[in-house]
Design brief:
Blueprint: H1 18-24, H2 44-50, H3 55-59, H4 62-75, E1 81-82, H5 89-93, E2 99-101, E3 105-107, H6 127-130, H7 132-144, E4 151-156, H8 158-167, H9 175-183, H10 185-209, E5 213-218, H11 226-250, E6 257-261, H12 268-271, E7 278-280, H13 287-294, E8 299-304, H14 313-327, E9 332-336, H15 346-365
Parallel strand pairs: 1-4, 4-5, 5-6, 6-7, 7-8, 8-9
Antiparallel strand pairs: 2-3
Bound molecules: coproporphyrinogen III.
Coproporphyrinogen III binds next to strand 3.
Length: 366
């Protein structure tokens, strides 16, 4: 059997369920907080641990992933953790080579160039086998975290992964992958469908391994216009959540799902009606407007400008207070609007976390 979905009663008991409660829309005493890329180069202990090791070798070591996931929890009072891994392990599992080139970022030496290249991808992906190292990392971390906070699993979304597989790296214009959408729409849909199938198995495998929530990163949503978003992003995002939720329901499990479609303003209303429990927002969206557009149907996550962490501590506290007033303190998970940068000061993260907890407790008393 590919995926065992039984509950795992032998994991340590969860001590802080604030994040899960907010995700499910239940009352919380304070606003839970975590940061995208909370395990990263801004931490000296992360740089020390990663020094001289290849990035994807690190991803393939469950012990290393566990250690890097736990590092930020030793320093900060976060209400959730996210497993250390990368979204590009999925294209690797489908048969593509990906390298992490220092100073350049992820690079595919042999990206997909034209529709025939789809033949280079494995037709049948044994997710349980190919991504076993991620599942092992999750199970190990779930034990080692000792129930302190919930562990989030994640995946890249189909469109974002397709864009890396065709561009071969990051891009300013994304003209290669966008040209596929206009020249080969049917082949594009075939590729997105194949990614979706792998992603569904991958997320279910993560839950079976011990993930207590799931986040889907559609980091490149914003390079599309509303028409292309509705055609090439939204249907697959919906399909992923619906299929994962349906399968989990069969075994009586309810695992909150978060969707992060960066810069997709026009997609907010649709995303709030796409089977996800939480919509995660980048910093360009006004909290009150986001509440209006999502109509109180989902919880919201985000969305402080990561660069606000460069501000003095007192200013960070003010920015957080304004953000909390915009979102309100319920059905809300505080986070940044995108990942942290390597030159950020860990002290600022501590100030951010403290401000969220302090202001939200005060607001809840009023
Ligand atoms: O703490 C966490 O948030 C968990 C771990 C995590 C990583 N990558 C670790 C990582 C997560 C959730 C990701 C997801 C990811 N990876 C995304 C989606 C989120 C987003 O940022 O929009 C994307 C687009 C990637 C692809 C990727 N991996 C990029 C663009 C980079 C940066 C390359 C660079 O040189 O800065 C990576 C590398 C990466 N992934 C790092 C970390 C901590 C830094 C590199 C290192 O440790 O050597």
């Amino acid at each position: 059997d590919l995926i065992h979905l039984e509950a795992r009663p032998y994991f340590p008991q969860l001590k802080n369920d604030t994040f899960l409660r907010a995700a499910r829309g239940e009352q919380t005493q304070h606003v839970p907080v975590w940061c995208m890329r909370q395990a990263g180069r801004y931490l000296p202990e992360f740089r020390e641990f990663r020094a001289g090791k290849d990035f994807f070798d690190t991803c393939r070591s469950p012990e290393a992933c566990c250690e890097l996931t736990l590092q930020p929890l030793r320093r900060f009072d976060f209400d959730a953790s996210i497993i250390f891994s990368d979204i590009l392990v999925v294209p690797q599992a489908m048969g593509m080579e990906v390298q992490m080139v220092p100073g350049k970022g992820p690079t595919f030496p042999d990206p997909l160039k034209d529709p025939e290249d789809l033949q280079r991808l494995k037709t049948k992906v044994d997710v349980q086998k190919e991504l076993d190292y991620v599942f092992k990392a999750i199970t190990l971390t779930r034990h080692k975290i000792e129930g302190k906070v919930p562990l989030i699993g994640f995946t890249g979304a189909p469109w974002t992964l397709m864009s890396y597989m065709i561009e071969g790296s990051g891009s300013k214009t994304f003209s290669k992958v966008k040209s596929w959408l206009y020249r080969y729409p049917e082949v594009s849909h075939m590729l997105l469908k194949r990614l979706t199938d792998v992603i569904v198995d991958y997320l279910l495998g993560q839950v079976a391994a011990g993930a207590q929530a799931l986040q889907v990163f559609e980091s490149h949503a914003g390079i599309l216009g509303p028409v292309e978003f509705k055609a090439f992003c939204l249907p697959y995002l919906r399909d992923i959540a619906r299929r994962v939720k349906d399968q989990l329901k069969e075994t009586g499990q309810d695992v909150p799902m978060i969707v992060f479609a960066k810069d997709a303003h026009y997609g907010l209303e649709d995303l709030s009606q796409s089977y996800y429990d939480v919509v995660s927002l980048d910093w360009t969206i006004d909290p009150r407007l986001a509440r209006e557009q999502t109509g109180g149907k989902v919880s919201l996550q985000g969305n402080m400008d990561p660069c606000a962490l460069y501000a003095p501590k007192e200013r960070i506290s003010e920015i957080v207070k304004t953000m909390l007033e915009g979102f309100g303190t319920q059905r809300y998970i505080a986070n940044l609007g995108h990942g942290m940068y390597p030159d950020m000061d860990p002290e600022s993260v501590a100030a951010f976390v403290e401000a969220v907890h302090k202001h939200s407790r005060q607001m809840n008393k009023q």
